[in-house]
């Protein structure tokens, strides 16, 4: 039997510290905050199948294993650590006479699930997982096979190309299953073209796929499909109709001629047929890339575009594309509206779906991330509320798209990785079913791009050195795509922060430090019943997080400063007799109070403040509440993972991208120390000291 001390000491804390920068990854710094992982023909440390389930709980229910993977600004890349969830009853072998810090018999404390409570209360951020409450089903993650992406892939030597393809699509890589393919040219092409560039080709007699399709994109799509075991889903979007079909006779800007609405619909069906003949089944068509762009031409947008107003889009979908598609052999192809910035939600769809025929014909909504900074996610929630039967999918993201982004490619930028991570988390917490990057592979200039619209993405290739550079953005996606397969369901989380006052204000700890915990989270249950939490510590301090699932107990982990984390455990039920002890007891306040006081004292003496448990003593642990006007569970959950304070003050403001200025208040060394699943052998003196105190207290 394990003693209570052992339970706390060995199972309480997993300190996630990497042993070496990047683990197996060969890293390189370009001076943009973090590193890239370099792959070439000889090696690629990024390739490892991480999908194995940690397995079920111990037979006696005493412990349930979890695995946590961490990538950090300091250089960890999917580094692995292991630990156990613990439940109070497992420690019942403690010898009688042990006193806990209230002077009660320890065994008595155990009746209340004491060990769990200790673990739980010591998390600076506490996350309760509620797998019974489920939301949207995941479609998957991926990006666009543009001409540029496919040409970049093609230009690599075969063995390097193979490494890159595996990094994107294979189970040992990012396992991308959602691919967007442009119909014709885009800004990420070598030239402007469509498939019917002969003016007046009213019967599409000269419709031809391009060399870009046949030679570059389709081979990538076919290989990707093979690598994912046929799981690939392709979403096709046109950037513009042939110039002669438009009011302006230009590739850039203008709208479709009203008399050619049907021809443009037929063009889409023809495309589906051409791709099908070459072995590529298209899963969905969008209504066309970023229709709003056409109205900003040529001031801001200098690449292929065609405008729709919501009324025009409604007419074309309802009277032309929708019916043509449903009459065709490709009648199962899904139709997605909008395919533009989410700040247009729900306004755009309120207009498009006012026609019930159109609402019936359209399956979902495609959104882009570029202006998410001005959209505090409300549009997604409203869209779901107005049209709960539509799925929402994010079909484009890349960095440095703005004119004021002067340095387009910033290899190794952690900030850009964090922007992806933040956006995916927020999208997932607001009904989005999948998330796609723009061009999946660009060169180190951010192209090629005929329109010189260079951007920064997750996988960059250095053709001269025949190297593949995997960026922090690639890892931001990896933390989802490698662990959250299609068919996973998002589940409810309740997030509390120990360092928030009831007013939602930043609460200084006993030393006056106010390094604020900045941990955002989302969670899923996979088809094989694993629970996957994705945790983003965007703060500059290491932060302890307690995670509780009534089915397996409580785990506590320390997330390194500026880190992405994926924690996986099996959700298989353990013995039913445990259930009653799991409820968070109302006595938590009292227990925590004395616990935190003694810990605070000890900490003071040792000169090392460990955690902000003082907040508990003041009874300030706040449940995150919903944003203004929140009425559904989903809102509350979403809000709870948003910026600090949103819940308590009842607003829905977010603070995208803010990073705590606070000083580290956590025990622990800089990321880069050794991985520790055993607090007794913890990597810092403070941690050892703290554990010693805990033992004394127990
Ligand atoms: C988790 O618990 C099991 C069973 O008690 C034990 O064998 C294993 O070593 C523990 N794992 C860790 C990482 O502590
Ligand atoms: C596709 O796979 C074949 C066979 O393995 C390989 O020869 C070819 O280079 C691959 N092409 C791409 C673009 O991945
Ligand atoms: C779709 O087309 C197939 C044959 O191509 C047909 O059997 C099926 O009924 C059609 N479905 C709908 C909803 O029209």
Automatic annotation (TrEMBL):
It catalyses: a beta-D-glucosyl-(1<->1')-N-acylsphing-4-enine + H2O = an N-acylsphing-4-enine + D-glucose. Residues 497-516, 574-698 are annotated as: Disordered. Its EC number is 3.2.1.45. It is an enzyme of class 3 (hydrolase). One of its GO terms (molecular function) is glucosylceramidase activity. Belongs to the glycosyl hydrolase 30 family. This is Glucosylceramidase. It comes from Frankliniella fusca.
């Amino acid at each position: 039997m394990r003693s209570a001390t052992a339970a706390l000491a060995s199972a309480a804390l997993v300190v996630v510290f990497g042993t070496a920068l990047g683990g197996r990854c060969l890293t390189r710094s370009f001076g943009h905050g973090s590193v890239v992982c370099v792959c070439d023909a000889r090696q690629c440390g990024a390739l490892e199948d991480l999908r194995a389930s940690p397995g079920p709980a111990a037979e006696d229910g005493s412990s349930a294993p979890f695995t946590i993977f961490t990538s950090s600004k300091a250089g960890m890349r999917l580094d692995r650590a292991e630990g156990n969830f613990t439940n109070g009853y497992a420690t019942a072998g403690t010898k009688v006479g042990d006193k806990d810090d209230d002077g009660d018999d320890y065994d008595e404390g155990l009746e209340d699930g004491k060990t769990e409570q200790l673990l739980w209360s010591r998390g600076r951020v506490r996350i309760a997982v509620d797998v019974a409450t489920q939301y949207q089903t995941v479609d998957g993650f991926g990006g666009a096979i543009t001409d540029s992406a496919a040409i970049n892939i093609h230009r690599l030597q075969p063995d390097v190309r193979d490494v890159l393809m595996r990094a994107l699509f294979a189970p040992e890589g990012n396992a991308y299953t959602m691919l967007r393919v442009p119909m014709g040219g885009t800004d990420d092409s070598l030239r402007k073209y469509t498939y019917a560039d002969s003016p007046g080709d009213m019967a599409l007699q000269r419709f031809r796929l391009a060399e870009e399709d046949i030679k570059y994109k389709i081979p990538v799509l076919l290989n990707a499909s093979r690598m994912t075991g046929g799981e690939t889903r392709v979403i096709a979007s046109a950037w513009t109709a042939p110039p002669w079909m438009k009011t302006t006779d230009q590739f850039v800007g203008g709208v479709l001629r009203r008399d050619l609405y049907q021809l443009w619909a037929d063009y889409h069906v023809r495309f589906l047929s051409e791709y099908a003949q070459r072995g590529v089944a298209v899963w969905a068509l969008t209504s066309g890339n970023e229709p709003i762009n056409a109205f900003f031409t040529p001031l801001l947008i200098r690449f292929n575009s065609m405008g729709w107003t919501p009324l025009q889009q409604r007419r074309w979908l309802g009277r032309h594309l929708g019916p043509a598609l449903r009459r065709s052999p490709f009648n199962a192809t899904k139709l997605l509206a909008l395919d533009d910035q989410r700040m247009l939600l729900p306004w755009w769809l309120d207009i498009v779906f006012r026609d019930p025929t159109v609402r019936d014909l359209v399956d979902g909504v495609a959104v882009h991330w570029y202006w998410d900074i001005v959209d505090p996610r409300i549009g997604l929630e409203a869209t779901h509320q107005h049209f709960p039967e539509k799925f929402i999918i994010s079909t484009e993201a890349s960095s440095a798209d703005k004119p004021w982004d002067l340095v387009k490619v910033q290899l190794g930028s952690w900030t850009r990785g964090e922007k992806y991570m933040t956006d995916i988390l927020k999208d997932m917490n607001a009904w989005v079913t999948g998330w796609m990057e723009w061009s999946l592979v660009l060169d180190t200039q951010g192209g090629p791009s005929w329109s010189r619209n260079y951007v920064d993405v997750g996988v960059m290739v250095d053709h001269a050195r025949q190297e593949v550079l995997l960026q922090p953005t690639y890892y931001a996606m990896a933390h989802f795509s490698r662990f959250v397969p299609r068919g996973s369901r998002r589940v409810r989380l309740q997030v509390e922060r120990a360092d928030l006052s009831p007013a939602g204000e930043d609460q200084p700890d006993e030393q006056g430090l106010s390094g604020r915990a900045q941990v955002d989270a989302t969670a899923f249950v996979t088809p094989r019943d694993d629970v996957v939490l994705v945790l983003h510590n965007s703060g500059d301090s290491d932060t302890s997080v307690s995670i509780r699932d009534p089915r397996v107990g409580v785990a506590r982990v320390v997330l390194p400063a500026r880190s992405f984390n994926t924690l996986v455990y099996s959700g298989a039920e353990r013995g039913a007799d445990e259930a009653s002890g799991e409820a968070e007891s109302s006595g938590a306040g009292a227990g925590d109070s004395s616990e935190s006081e003694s810990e605070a004292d000890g900490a003071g003496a040792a000169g090392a403040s460990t955690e902000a448990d003082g907040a508990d003593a003041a009874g300030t642990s706040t449940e995150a509440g919903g944003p203004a006007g929140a009425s559904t569970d989903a809102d509350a959950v979403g809000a709870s993972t948003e910026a600090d304070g949103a819940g308590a003050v009842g607003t829905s403001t977010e603070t995208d991208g803010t990073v705590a200025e606070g000083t580290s208040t956590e025990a622990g060394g800089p990321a880069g120390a050794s991985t520790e699943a055993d607090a007794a052998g913890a990597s810092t003196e403070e941690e050892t000291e703290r554990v010693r105190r805990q033992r004394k207290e127990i």
